[in-house]
């Protein structure tokens, strides 16, 4: 489907559209539509109704099927529809110590490695990572959640951050600059945020100067001394090196 032409404020939460995901309903619908459209196509192909009992059965079949057989969006949406049998939360979003959720989340990312190489782009992978992170913030570090939340509105319009830009944003959030970063209205402004001084590579220290001692003097070979011309009769001897 076509992406939004530009980032705009959300009419519901007031933040940039998408950044309020998943608590804000408007932001949730804006983000989830990319997943929901593929899922609706799968439902139509299976002649199933959305919200019916057959939909949950289909979700279980999708997760049990061979990795890469269904679109990655359908794998994610199947997890959204199912509850974890161990903790009862949405699958892959439960407590950090829930083994079943950890296994489901691992299945999500195994799709990237075992699925068809051309079936997911770098931009889609970034969008997928952002959605999974902010949907289960308690399973990730706060700085990581903040960085992806800041980027999410721009990912929706097709921007693709580099790994270095994500790391710099994460460091800035960790330093307490989230509110300032959230005020950036454009992608360029956000990703050009001044790097923190303590993150800049330090210049190598210059070695301390010390006077040269006799141990630092070049060694003169014995044969060089022996080969030096000997003074003739009445000539002064040469100074030793």
Describe this protein's structure.
The protein has 241 residues and is mostly helical. It has two domains: 19-140, no CATH class; 142-195, no CATH class. Helix content is 47%, strand content 0%. It contains ten helices and no strands. The protein has helices spanning 25-45, 53-64, 72-81, 99-114, 122-135, 142-155, 163-174, 178-182, 187-191, 222-226.
Notable features of this structure?
10 helices; 2 domains; disordered C terminus; 0% strand; 241 residues; mainly alpha; globular
Q: In which range does the helix fraction lie?
A: 40-55%
Distance between the termini: 84 Å
Beta-strand portion reads under 5%
Radius of gyration based on Cα positions: 31 Å
The biggest beta sheet is recorded as:
none
Shape summary:
globular
Low-confidence stretches: 209-241
User: How many DSSP helices?
Assistant: 10
Series of secondary-structure elements, N-terminal to C-terminal? HHHHHHHHHH
Overall number of structural domains: 2
Quick gist of this model?
This protein has 241 residues and is mostly helical. It has two domains: 122 residues, no CATH class; 54 residues, no CATH class.
